## 1
Amino acid sequence: MFAKQYINGIIDEVMEYYDCIIAGSGPAGLGAAFQLLSCKPDARILILEKAEISSGGLRNDCKMNFTFPVGFPGEYWERGKAEEYLAQVEEFLKPEILEQKQFDVYEKRAARIGVELLRIRQSHLGTDGGIQLIKALVSQLTAKQVEISFGESLITAEEKDHMAVTGKREAHYGALIVAPGRHGFDFLRRFMTELGIPYADNSIDVGIRLETKIEHYPIVKDYYDPKFIFPERTRTFCTNSGSAHVVQERYTTPSGQHYYSVNGHSYSENRPPNGLVNFAVLRSVAFTEPIASGQDYAEYLATLAMLTGGGHPVMQRVGDFRLGKRTTADGLNTDLNDFRPTLSSATPGDISLALPSKFLDSIWKALKLLDTIIPGILHPSTIMYYPEIKLYANKPIFRDYYFMAARDIYLIGDGAGTSRGITGAWASGLRAADGIAARNGWTAA
């Protein structure tokens, strides 16, 4: 598609033009694209994806939560509107909601000791199911003439001229949606700085991921991803069971240092179970002066963990942690320690050498409470992996309700702090698309 301009009375085809350019092919970007097409079926849309495949939140494990407020940061969402958008997400994706059993039993146990268990409607496709969903969604968009360019990154934008600059070209847009996800946190920070978009970056989630036998955390047979809220802003997050594995994800700091954050995923029921379960316990902290950037602090912690682990995440058995001693490779698979860590590249060691006590104390208190609710989670063989750090604390100052941060530039998804998870990210894409449609007078079919 080419924009045309008149120079001395002569029509000059200068560069490509799109009604909307979307940077990021995760759930936020995909949701925005489908919503724009529902308002303007012939909309010219370009989706940019820096990876060679769609690498957003639908790819790893693909668990989705359909109950407010999970995934919806309170500073940007109020219940009524969030639930309206959630209903749209559910209608489009048509998930199979998982059955929950014995919820009242676990809820009462938790309430007795000051812990909250959230009742969440959930679905789970697994990593393999998520990949199939992505392929289907991309195919649908391609059939609707949406251009999807893999291996192409947004570099910057010129607000006045409505021009996007990528690593391969320049293109004009009517609207630009930037949805880089958690991995694009640092890119988005640079992007906002270049365009003069004010933002705050002062809160982080830091924690560990536990891995144990499913018999030590049997609640997952009744509630796939139980959401426990503990005192001191500590919570469980992203539970995986069945064919479950702990993985490491690579990040790069602004100075070029590489580090790994652990994560978890599992496959669908089509894969044989391995008898293990993993989940994160995260502690949230909001900084005040003099710390200007929560991300810089989080990345400092991550690089310290890499130093401690010789370039890899650190793992420690609960039994060793209780004794105040490091875990060794020789002691990983003896006697009570009778399963092999699925993240074999992690370094046996002592997480307390790298995890500040502010976080570790809160996490250990939470785990002791959890072990009261579900006895067994603190079995000596349980593995604690560190670090697990979530970078979704960018908080832009938006110009309107629809996440417009500069003229016709919209920032959405986990990287922009407007969501925390697949369904919230998809909903933020819908909301931005609605804003673009209203601004251009497009009407939904």
## 2
Amino acid sequence: MSAVMTSNLPGTGITVPRSALGPQGWTALMAAVITVMVLAPVLNMVVPADSAFHLSDYAVALIGKIMCYAICALAMDLIWGYTGILSLGHGLFFALGGYGMGMYLMRQIGRDGSYGADIPDFMVFLDWKQVPWHWTLSESFIAQMLLVVLVPGLLAFVFGFFAFRSRIKGVYFSIITQAMTFAAMLLFFRNETGFGGNNGFTDFKRILDIPIAQQSTRMVLFVLTGLTLIGFFLMARWLVGTKFGRVLQAIRDAENRVMFCGYNPLAYKLAIWTLSAVMCAIAGALYVPQVGIINPSEMSAAASIEIAIWTAVGGRATLIGPIIGAFFVNGAKSWFTVAFPEFWLYFLGLLFVLVTLFLPDGIVGGIKKLLNKKAEVKA
């Protein structure tokens, strides 16, 4: 999908790939845009439901959800594939973005809840008389969208600053990111924190005063998610080809040499770590209105590990690979959990083992090797 060039990082002697979209890449990109903005809406809203070409509302919701996951996988590729930092805590940032959107959607319910109150039903059940202080801005869509970016971004920045300044890396960094996520999950499980406890947020009615369940609203959310994924992909493709991106890859391959050449890895790692967290948060905010629920299970250890699995299966340091991995794994999960629900976890484990043994560079890496071998044979 891309034309690959190489360049040297000044002063290090380290050669890193510099990627740019070639003619085939731009063609594929335009096809993706047309599919998201034109083809999917037509198949869902114009083609009759009894037609073989009709895209069902279930399929729209499923694809929209997987596109949110693909954004998370793309974010993981920037921090793991291109910088060499494995995070097992990205599920936290995804969930925080989801809770930020969920708070606004809960206030949009208004008096249509079971108790007919001005505050969310779970607060009435807990005998609260008013919303807590951290819900103060929850009635404003703009304010909540700002918080969707600022809260996870600030948390990632503070955590990353102390972790990277202490030169925590490798498996130790992975462990503390998972510990941070687990601690947050336990906090959100508590009713007194004001986030719905074990049940979280659900039963949404409207977004921007528009019924959230109507077909046109769901299609708009689908299109926004698709365009966001494409936009983030283009941003990531541009970023890894800049000097900043080349320094990230040099840090991944030889951090000590980068330091000896006068570069400060802290600033670079902190910047990409924070950006990656914000991308996951935006994905979470897009996920919640399409799925209709957010609860602390999104912060579980398994949720963060799955993001790493999507990235590894698709192919690290490829950008398109993690997107493919997210669609492949979650598409298979959707089918297996219906056809063979008791075997899904075994399939996921087997998939990860097979990819590790036979496709260490993921699906995209395996395809590239196969194409290179064919080219060598022809030559």
